[in-house]
Design goal:
By secondary structure, the protein is an alpha+beta fold. It has helices at residues 12-23, 25-35, 82-89, 95-100, 110-113, 117-126; strands at 37-44, 50-57, 62-65, 76-81, 105-108.
């Protein structure tokens, strides 16, 4: 089942991240070992609609829709525009730059948010944004 939402074109990156995590058992285990958290992404598109996805790097190493897998809550929530998320995943901007300019809001464990960068880099090679 695709995680992409038509009103959020950059959400195709969540499919790429999920595919990357599923492609290799060793890579998935490594990502979980490095991440040790559930990351929620709240994106807002130009029409003002909001949608959320999460990356579970605490237990399963999977991506799903919603702020957290059922029965869990996110350790870190990253809120940003759909456009900025697309730029971040495409490698055209860095999360730190978005955070410093106020375009990326982080709720929860900010230090864990820094562990997300390597996972997003894997998606850059697979996502065609």
């Amino acid at each position: 089942m695709s995680l992409k939402s038509d009103s959020f074109p950059s959400s195709a990156a969540f499919d790429a991240i999920n595919d990357s995590l599923k492609s290799s058992d060793a890579e998935r285990k490594d990502a979980v070992k490095q991440g040790k958290a559930i990351f929620a992404f709240k994106l807002k598109n130009k029409e003002g609609q909001e949608e959320a996805w999460n990356i579970d790097l605490k237990e399963k190493g999977i991506v799903s829709k919603g702020e957290a897998p059922e029965g869990h809550k996110a350790d870190v929530t990253l809120s940003l525009s759909e456009e900025d998320f697309g730029k971040m995943v495409a490698g055209k901007t860095q999360a730190q730059r978005l955070f410093m300019s106020g375009k990326l809001k982080v709720k929860g464990d900010v230090m864990k948010a820094t562990k997300m960068e390597p996972v997003l880099k894997k998606a850059q090679t697979k996502a065609k944004l």
